[in-house]
Amino acid sequence: MDIVVKRPVVAGVLGAALLAALVAGFASSYLTFLLTGAAITTVFMQSYGLITGRAGVISLCQLGFAAIGAWVVGWANVADVPGGFYAWLPLGGLAATVAGLLIGLPALRLRGVNLAVATFAFATALDVVFGGLAFPGQDDFTFVRRPDGFTGDSGYFVFTLAVVTAIFLGLRALDRSRVGGALLEIRHSERAAAAHGTSVARGKLAAFALSAFVAGVGGGLMAGQLGVVAAGNFTTFASVSLFAIALFVGTHNIEGAVAGGLMGAFFPLLLDAVGIPQDLAALFFGVGAVQVLRLGGSQTDLLRAARRRRRQTGDLPIPAANPRPLVPLRLRAPLECADATPALEVRGLRVRFGALTALDGVDLVVPKGHVVGLVGPNGAGKSTLINAVTGFADHYDGAVLLNGEPVDALPAHRRARAGLRRSFQQLRVPEALTVGMYLQVAAGRTLDATDVDEQLALFELPAADVPIACVDVATRRLLEVAGLTAGRPAVLLLDEPAAGHSGAETELVQRRVAEVPERFDTAVLLVEHDIELVRATCDSVVVLDFGRVIAVGPPDDVLADPAVVAAYLGSATP
Ligand SMILES: Nc1ncnc2c1ncn2[C@@H]1O[C@H](COP(=O)(O)OP(=O)(O)OP(=O)(O)O)[C@@H](O)[C@H]1O
């Protein structure tokens, strides 16, 4: 039992080896055939787990990719391509990858239902193509030759299981990498991913390509199992049914992929055994998928969450590190702005939403080494300014310069990479990640274990391996700031980082924000309604009202300005 918890990879590989030995030694040929089918369906589930489970992209054409993989393996068999099945299988996967890139590229601009329709159309088109085009070997029954050493049914099951295990190991490595973390962040919030420097388009394209490769390998395995395949093995209907299973069980989790494989292979047989037509299985899968919308998660996600709740007793573990003290720790006295070099310059920024002018010619400078407060009553245009500066506004007039260079032509993720990072008013921290992985993703650079622990200790956050799902909302807000500062950007725009915090937490935010310039070499633009926090943290303050700057200067002067007080009347008085 201990090994399952402490060495899950070893336990998984041993379990697969044991299953292979049992099936090879004791299973009837019919059961072996069914289990091989289940293993191949598990490969399809792994592919759905990649594209939909991890990247959040709805794809209804995974069996189309499988068909391409199977076709190429059939062709390689007929053409006697050197290397045998060991070479043909990855060749099938690669051909499917090319198709994945081709369908992925035009689909990048689409989301949700539109993307579903596009992939459905691709699947249907492939149905038509393969319907009229016989698979190689189909007409004259040229059976695909299985891999040397695994030609018997039991042997082929062992081979298939080895492929399934290898894909699981690859997916596990992906999940532990920053790329895997970025894919999960794309699923959770494309805007947050872009704000951390991730190219959402590239992430989705990579997910399409990888999932198509896996599906193509699944199709190739099917060709090896059946010897001869036909278009009927890869219909759009079957693709959609498997998608529904994947959504219902959650095949981005290993147990979900296995359960999905077993369900896809055995459930129709079960229905047949009790006299219900097999095709009705799709109906049950569809109902299961709709349940996900109602329950807010797949079955395996919900089970994992319940297990976490049961296990989580007492305080969360804390990192084994102390933050490096600042020598000397600066007690913040407002800095003079006049001579400082600008890190961020905003010139004549104008944003319109139809008839409404949300920002009307705003000029603003955030000097290097400074914390600048941006305040103003509700609706003054503060968030709109952050959106425009960081590349999240559809259109604006004016100019944004980072370290003297205009960034107006850059999309959001490239501005983030250039050193312009932001937080969001609404929390966008994905529950599916651990605290440490989020820190890596949000930093947009690889941090070593010591950096991670120090950063977590600095912000009084739980240890790196704690799942974000276990931490409260205020802690997630702090984690967001910890991640952004770990990236050491040139400029950090924080949109109400203290919202929802208790008194003690606000004090921690205050201390950490004040230290950001010195600790991380990052200038800060702080949007905050908590005027005391602004007063204690900022070197200077800019006040917006109805999209215009009405005051700029040292905090105490600006916050006592009668025009500023008047602007705030009716909301909070500064
Ligand atoms: N996407 C949008 N479409 C239309 N109007 C918008 C949009 N976003 C903001 N606005 C409007 O632009 C103005 C500025 O809004 P913004 O959210 O920037 O203000 P804010 O100062 O951040 O307010 P708060 O302090 O409440 O967050 C408001 O009148 C708002 O209703």
UniProtKB/TrEMBL annotation:
Domain of life: Bacteria
Residue intervals of the ABC transporter domain: 344-571
Family annotation (Pfam families): ABC_tran, BCA_ABC_TP_C, BPD_transp_2
Predominant localisation class: membrane
Localization in the cell: Cell membrane
Keyword Cell division applies: no
TM region positions: 12-45, 57-79, 85-108, 115-135, 155-174, 205-223, 229-249, 256-276
Membrane association type: Multi-pass membrane protein
PANTHER family for the chain: CONSERVED COMPONENT OF ABC TRANSPORTER FOR NATURAL AMINO ACIDS-RELATED (PTHR45772)
Name the UniProt record assigns to this protein: ABC transporter domain-containing protein
